[in-house]
């Protein structure tokens, strides 16, 4: 046959009913003679069943939806690698959807994955909206948030408060007079608010420090442009970037203006990306355990699927990497 064989074709060629062929592929009861006929047709025509199509129709199909904001982030890729490995070790198959930071696409795919009959959903969310909470409240299937806190759901988050305080205390040791904080919008609660507020709470203990803030969008390019404009008018003693990626953009702008790090301007970040260890000077930063976050996400969603107890909030620890980019 030149066309792709269907279950109906197999039934006709083997002389059995379509329901018999369906039971054959779904491990139901089929008599010995019928099984031999079906197997013979399959071997003669090299038929390969569409396992994905069969799987999404079945209950307990072992598919887990994973929604991510991007695929080019060091944090996302590290979490995904560990998440993927752990799920597959446990016999589950991740269906990964990239939203390109489009919150509408993220929300739409909650329902899309539910219609595909996945057993659970993991979201590496950039923010948690009322639509997210409504979907969780519907109880359609287990949902786990990674990187953001959902008040009525299950969440795995970085210990932002502890990390922010640690960074603030290290910064104060260098005795800066003027500090610039490069943050992100507060719609990202964990980074834009919790991380930022924890840093500021410590810095404000020194009443003589002047603190200014500009907001970027996580990208290296935008941060470089923003700081380039800022440095035309002012020069801070120290810059705190909400992420390592933004710190790299800031470093480009600092070098463009001819300033030296840390002699003229000190700088720090959050993330602990590998590149922060190979640039000169090495970046002082917070390294969150993203590998553990990926493993824990896989373990937790499987527990939720199986009806086992899971803590509503699980916090990921970090290492503080005190390097040469701060005096």
Please characterize this protein's 3D structure.
This protein is of the alpha/beta class. Helix content is 46%, strand content 18%. It is built from 13 helices and twelve strands. Helix 12 (275-278) links the parallel strand 9 and strand 10 (284-288). It starts with 6 loop residues before the first helix and ends in a 6-residue tail after the last strand. The mean pLDDT is 91. Residues 5-58 form the HTH lacI-type domain.
Task: Please supply descriptive tags for the structure shown above.
single chain, 327 residues, alpha/beta, six-stranded parallel beta sheet, six-stranded mixed beta sheet, 13 helices, 12 strands, 46% helix, 18% strand, elongated, LacI family DNA-binding transcriptional regulator, Peripla_BP_I, HTH_LacI, transcription regulation
The end-to-end distance, rounded to whole angstroms, is 74 Å
Percent of residues in helices comes to 40-55%
Quantity of strands, as a count? 12
Number of helices: 13
- Rounded to an integer in angstroms, the radius of gyration calculated over CA atoms is 26 Å
Which stretches of 5+ consecutive residues score pLDDT under 50? none
Mean pLDDT: 91
Let me know the largest β-sheet. 6 strands, parallel
Strand content bin: 15-25%
Give the topology.
Layout: H1 7-14, H2 18-25, H3 32-45, H4 51-57, E1 63-68, H5 74-89, E2 93-98, H6 103-115, E3 120-123, H7 130-138, E4 143-146, E5 154-158, H8 160-173, E6 178-183, H9 189-203, E7 210-215, H10 220-231, E8 238-241, H11 244-256, E9 266-271, H12 275-278, E10 284-288, H13 290-305, E11 313-316, E12 318-321
Parallel strand pairs: 1-2, 1-3, 3-4, 4-5, 5-11, 6-7, 6-8, 8-9, 9-10
Antiparallel strand pairs: 10-12
Helix pairs in contact: 1-2, 1-3, 5-13, 8-9, 10-11
């Amino acid at each position: 046959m030149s066309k792709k064989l269907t279950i109906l074709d197999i039934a006709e060629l083997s002389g059995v009913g379509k329901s018999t062929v369906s039971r054959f592929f779904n491990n139901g009861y089929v008599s010995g003679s019928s099984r031999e006929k079906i197997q013979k047709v399959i071997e003669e025509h090299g038929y390969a069943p569409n396992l994905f199509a069969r799987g999404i129709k079945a209950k307990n199909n072992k598919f887990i939806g994973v929604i991510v904001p991007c695929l080019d982030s060091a944090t996302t890729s590290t979490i995904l690698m560990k998440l993927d490995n752990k799920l597959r070790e446990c016999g589950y198959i991740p269906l990964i959807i990239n939203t390109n930071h489009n919150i509408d696409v993220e929300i739409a795919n909650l329902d899309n994955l539910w219609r595909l009959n996945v057993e659970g959903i993991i979201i590496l969310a950039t923010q948690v909206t009322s639509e997210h909470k409504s979907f969780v409240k519907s109880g359609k299937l287990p949902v786990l948030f990674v990187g953001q806190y959902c008040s009525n759901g299950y969440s795995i988050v970085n210990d932002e408060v502890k990390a922010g305080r640690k960074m603030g205390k290290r910064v104060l040791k260098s005795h800066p007079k003027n500090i610039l904080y490069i943050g992100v919008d507060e719609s990202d609660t964990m980074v834009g608010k919790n991380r930022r507020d924890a840093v500021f709470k410590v810095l404000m203990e020194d009443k003589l420090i002047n603190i200014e803030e500009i907001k970027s969008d996580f990208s290296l390019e935008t941060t470089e442009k923003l700081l380039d404009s800022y440095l035309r008018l002012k020069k801070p003693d120290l810059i705190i970037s909400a992420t390592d990626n933004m710190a790299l953009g800031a470093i480009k702008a600092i070098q463009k203006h001819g300033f030296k790090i840390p002699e003229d301007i000190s700088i720090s970040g959050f993330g602990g990306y590998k590149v922060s260890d190979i640039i000169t000077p090495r970046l002082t930063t917070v390294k969150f355990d993203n590998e553990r976050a990926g493993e824990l996400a896989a373990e937790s969603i499987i527990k939720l699927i199986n009806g086992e107890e899971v803590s509503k909030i699980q916090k990921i620890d970090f290492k503080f990497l005190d390097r040469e980019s701060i005096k």
